[in-house]
Amino acid sequence: MSQCGNRHFALVCQNESLPKNARQKTEDAFCNGAPLCARRGSFTLEAAVVIPLTAAFLAALLFFFRVLQIQTAVSGALSYAGRKSAAASSFSDSETAELAAAKLYFLKTLSKDENIDRYVRGGKLGISLAGSDFCGEYIALEAAYEIQLPVHFFSVRGIPVIQKSVNRKWTGESADGEEADPFVYITPEGTVYHLSTSCHYLDLSIQTVKSAEIGRLRNQNGHKYYACERCAAENPKQKDLYITDYGTVYHASLQCSGLKRTIYEVRLSEVGTRGACSKCAAGKKK
Predict the structure, then answer these.
(1) Are residues 91 and 149 in the same domain?
(2) Mean pLDDT value across the chain
(3) Buried b (16+ CB within 10 A) or exposed e, 148-184
(4) What angle do CA 131, 106, 101 make, to 5 degrees?
(5) Residue 144 within any structural domain of the chain
(6) Looking at residues 67-84, what average pLDDT do you find?
(7) Are 54 and 158 in a shared domain?
(8) Is the Cα dihedral 203, 181, 164, 144 positive or negative?
């Protein structure tokens, strides 16, 4: 029992004017339950524990988002430096010169990012690209740095981070002005390759139409639209349907896989048995 509780308890017990049963109830209340000042002390103790833990959690959450911001900035700088270095690779045979140029491009992109100077050990100059590789057909940039912790835990003073970016070197053009092995575009289930991602067969140009109109509509090639086996068969009463300019089926759901295109950029020599697209690659020989 606290000091104030003892004092109050003694005064009540010494008051002979109170009935005996009232004094007994007061004694039981102080013996079996904590007095008010003791309860206040309990609340103060809980607050002293909970408030610092809550503040530490919020600080850790904020630090986590700062780390994500730094990684996003470094990733963008690596991508930019990789592309610029790949474009300039045909003019240099020295890996040292290429690394120096990549470092300049990298630092130029990060020049206005204050979070890196605040949280990365050594700031922008503390990010090392020494692990980068310029051999072969690819430029593999590797950024290694350490993020400083706001609070040191024993011997742990920072978090080591490594991020990478890989770009193919630009190999120049052939004598007739065309690249010897150009990039083309294919889909996993497609039977042809395309020279442009804006080709009508890759750019679906989805339109919404009413089900009552589908019977009289035709695509750009003059063909009729038929029900998609994936989604239209399961939703025969769907009022809004979806078609494409050059497709031959209509869809009842925008989530249907028939309305999605996964496009890969590959070299022409890697297309296998695929032929040229009649729209964008007509007249081009493999």
Answers:
(1) yes
(2) 76
(3) eeeeeeeeeeeeebebebebebbeeeeeeeeeeeeeb
(4) 75
(5) yes
(6) 87
(7) yes
(8) negative
151 in the same domain as 206: no
Mark which of 107, 137, 168 sits at the end of a domain.
168
Identify whether the C-beta of residue 91 lies closer than 8 Å to the C-beta of residue 101: no
The number of angstroms, rounded, from the C-alpha of 178 to the middle of its chain's C-alpha atoms is 37
Please list the residues that pair with 185 across neighbouring strands: 194, 265
Strands 138-153 and 156-168: antiparallel
How far, CA to CA in Å, does 28 sit from each of 21, 22, 42?
11, 10, 21
Domain identity same for 65 and 128: yes
- Is the pTM above the cut of 0.85? no
- Parallel, antiparallel, or unpaired for β 183-186 and 264-267? antiparallel
pLDDT digits (tens, 9 = 90+) for 127-137: 988 888 888 77
| pLDDT tens digit sequence for 148-185 | 887 766 666 788 889 988 888 776 554 455 556 788 88
Q: Is residue 251 part of a domain?
A: yes
Task: Among 124, 144, 168, give the residue marking a domain's end.
Answer: 168
Amino acid (1-letter code) at residue 189: E
Which residues span the domain enclosing 233? 183-276
Structure tokens at 38: 């003791």
Both 151 and 264 in a single domain?
A: no
Residues 163 and 52 in one domain: yes
Number of structural domains, the chain?
Answer: 2
Residues 99 and 195 in one domain: no
